[in-house]
Amino acid sequence: MITVATFMALDAAYRLLQIEKSHRMPLIVLVSATYNASGFQGTSDLSKNIKGNGTNIVVINFAPENNDLTNALQNIVSPGYYYVSTQQDLYVTIEYAFTQSK
Questions:
Q1: pTM to 2 decimal places
Q2: What is the arrangement of strands in the sheet containing 56-61, beginning at the earlier edge strand?
Q3: Rounded to a whole number, what is the distance in angstroms from the first to the last CA of the chain?
Q4: Could you tell me the pLDDT band of residue 1, with boundaries at 50, 70 and 90?
Q5: What distance lies between CA 72 and its chain's CA centroid?
Q6: Which InterPro entries does the protein's record reference (predicted)?
Q7: CB neighbour list of residue 50: distance below 8 Å, 6 or more residues apart
Q8: Residue 47 to residue 77: CA distance in whole angstroms
């Protein structure tokens, strides 16, 4: 299993979006199943910056029973884009979310 610090993943995704300019609306999808406090350090400020610059952050939580993870993910997600892996029709909902990103 590969563990990547959430801060590093968000930062890398955002930097890539800055380099790869497009006419499409930018969107970052973050999928997580584990929590490590040090991996989330700085994500609140970074996510505010990302969202403030017009990029939505979608989150799929694969461990909703982990309160630390759930709270951390809900702190960085764009409003209306928080999903749990076990929710009914997740893939249909996610697909719709991709088309609604503004």
A1: 0.89
A2: 27-32, 56-61, 82-84
A3: 33
A4: very low
A5: 11
A6: vWFA_dom_sf (IPR036465)
A7: 10, 14, 28, 57
A8: 8
DSSP E strands in the chain: the ranges are 27-32, 56-61, 82-84
Short-list 101, 80, 102, 83, CA closest to 91:
83
Architecture of domain 6-100 in CATH?
3-Layer(aba) Sandwich (3.40)
Place of tokens 């029973």: 65
Q: What pLDDT digit, counting tens, does each position of 15-74 carry?
A: 999 898 777 788 999 999 999 998 999 999 999 999 999 999 999 999 999 999 999 999
- 88: CB partners within 8 A, 6+ apart: none
